Amino acid sequence: VFICFSFEVKVELSLLEKEKEVDGLSPNGKASPFADSRPNGALGHGSDDDSTPLPLYHKPRDYVEASVCHVKDLENGQMREVDLGSGRALLIKEHGEFSAMAHKCPHYGAPLVKGVLSKGHVRCPWHGACFNIATGDLEDFPGLDSLPTFQVRVEKDKVIIRANKQALQSQKRSKPMARCSAVINSSMGFSHVLIIGSGPAGLVCAETLRQEGFTDRIVMCTMDRHPPYDRPKLSKSLDSTAEQLRLRSMEFLQDHDIELLTEKEAVAIDVKTRSVTFEDGLRMEYRKLFIATGSKPKPMIYKGKDVRNVFHLRTPEDANSIARLANNKNAVIVGTSFVGMEVAAALTDKAHSVSVIGIETVPFKKALGEKVGKAIMKVGTQSWYNMKHLQNTIILKEVVLKSGKVLRADACVIGAGSIPATGFLKQSGIHMDSKGFITVNKMMQTSAEGVFAGGDVVVFPFPPRNNKKVNIPHWQMAHVHGRVAALSMMGRAAEIQTVPYFWSAMFGKTIRYAGYGEGFDDVIIQGDLDELRFVAFYTRSEEVVAVASMNYDPIVSRVAEVLGSGKTIKKRDVE
Q1: Cis status, amide bond into 53, omega within 30 of 0
Q2: Taking every annotated instance into account, which residue ranges of this chain make up the domain Rieske (predicted)?
């Protein structure tokens, strides 16, 4: 059954400013690709003012010192955001010891005081990133940067923090990275590590290598024309430019000897000669290869494919064009994927009308269950119609449905799902499954020697499901894959130790999700679905495998913390 949900701009949206800033639309959203490299302790930090960059010699005026509370004001396991005059810090008490660090998550700026403190780290309430409270190091994703930490001492029952002013202002720092010591000619057709793809998997792989002391050449190739950017924001903030979404600047990459080749499409890999051929004829040999090409839109058969106002949302330019063409006009979204629904939501306050055509009776039914899907659907829909089939005709000004209904379309967005971008590997001999996903082991190694893969393109053994091979196309998971692959390349065994974390923002509301809910057989809902303040626990037989929430922070991060510690949550515990 095809459904058409129709949004009119008259819909009153209670766009919570807080939520808007929270998840889709923080002003820069700049993050930095640093995976935790704690297993070997090679580049750990002391807890004294780890901020970057700082001059070699600090003058006293570079610091601020303040008495922030009485020693008895905080119990063990408590956190408090404190003001030092030149900025704010997060004060933490655990096991009788005080520590202090930056108070905002570097990913999207979440207040960490609202997060979850457990076993020496703080987990962000919004998207689950973890930071070590002693070092400030990023220990789980998403995001790229770590936090500066500050000195704490107790004098006469007063807790005093001494902090570097610059660190207080920046609220983030990069982990130290090695430089490339190899003599390199940029035209040289060889790279010790070649990375295909500049999303979070590729970026984290490159930066983890440098953080771990790798000093040979790293080349990262991308089909994009821009340096790495925050792709999940495209569908939530259609007006954002590549510059606003940027994760790393060209200068940053150059400073750390990560070479970026833009507008480079890989067309073939020869695992025997260890070489990659690109569409423009460039051929590059490698010692280690990391494939992180992500996914591409699922092909649809319809007339009018080449019409200018029909889009698959892939780039900032696509997003900007959709926003421009739909302004005060009629927009049609084909597909009720998360991306499709996010675009629909983003257009409701821009377009004259927004219509969504979907094959499901309820959006997100497979991922979130019928009750949650219906609750979300109610937020933005005034009316919806049963449609038998799409008539496979998208023309410049209208979309025609099999029922005969005609939808005016000044801009049309196809959001009907995706497939792995692995077509170029067909003759490579690298093993893929029947759907085109690359199969990797727990070290992110493919069937070909020296070739690794990660992100949306892989199926990998997932420990919580007895190492069943799964595909988890989350932004956060791609970061983890990049880190594990980098450590594997350097001969340092590291396994995936994370809880999958996902979020979606629409109509000023944010849904958070943690775990792996594939095959859930029951949903236990607490809270109020009508008010969109709820938590949903997804269970398989008697065990909780995933959780989703709206307006119920930090429950999802709390559950992620429990699952991440290796514990199980039973259905009876929830009930």
Answers
A1: yes
A2: 66-161
Q: Give yes or no for a contact between 134 and 120, defined as CB atoms under 8 angstroms apart.
A: yes
CB of 377 closer than 8 Å to CB of 5: yes
Tokens of 67: 């008495």
DSSP 342-374: HHHHHHTTTSSEEEEEESSSSTTHHHH-HHHHH
Write down the residue that tokens 């005059």 correspond to.
85
pTM over 0.85: yes
Residue with tokens 């107790």: 154
Q: Is the peptide bond before 464 cis (omega within 30 degrees of 0)?
A: no
Q: What are phi and psi of 572, to 5 degrees?
A: -65, -30
Q: Does the CA dihedral 318-252-257-147 come out positive or negative? A: negative
Three-state secondary structure call for residue 56: coil
Token reading at 495: 């396994």
The C-alpha atoms of residue 190 and residue 217 are separated, in whole angstroms, by 9
Distances from the Cα of 169 to the Cα of 102, 103, 153, 159, angstroms:
9, 11, 21, 21
Of 108, 65, 103, 100, nearest to 86 by C-alpha is 65
Per-residue pLDDT tens digits for 125-168: 999 999 999 999 999 999 999 999 999 999 999 999 999 999 99
> Roughly how many angstroms between the first and final C-alpha of the chain, as a whole number?
35
Listed in sequence order, the DSSP H helices in 246-397 are 250-255, 316-326, 338-347, 365-368, 370-380
